[in-house]
Structure prediction request, 159 residues.
Amino acid sequence: MLLADVRTAAPGDATAISRLLAEAIRDGYGEALGDIRVGWLVSDHCALPRIRAEIEIPGGAPAWLGWLVAADTDGTVVGAVSGGVPVDSEGEIYALCVTPGRQREGVGTALLEAATGRMRAHGAAYQRITLPVEQAPALPFFTRHGFGTLTPVRLGRGL
Prediction:
């Protein structure tokens, strides 16, 4: 399937985002973090009420610029990203995930570019992300996109 677009998440996307994020956490970090920590991350970050509430927050407040989703032409959500500009001129990616079967097809790149555009529009000149563990599965993706290591789990790049 072809990627149709990256768009602002709608209330109807909450379940897809929740499932996709939970799957990414379990698959990507289960072995490194163990069942208890993964269970905590999933219950905290992927709870459907939380995702629904986050979608309802207008994406115009710099600290929270909202959720974006990547959807196939049939409307299936295949990726999601959230972020904001919590500190003047510093953007933060809070989450970025892509359906495992759709990785390495440009979905993550399209999501990162869209989130970066929003951050730049709110004055970000720098962008950061915190990964759950050192040597996270997403590390090569972020390195390819110009992020450098700030700490073993914190990455950043100039925009």
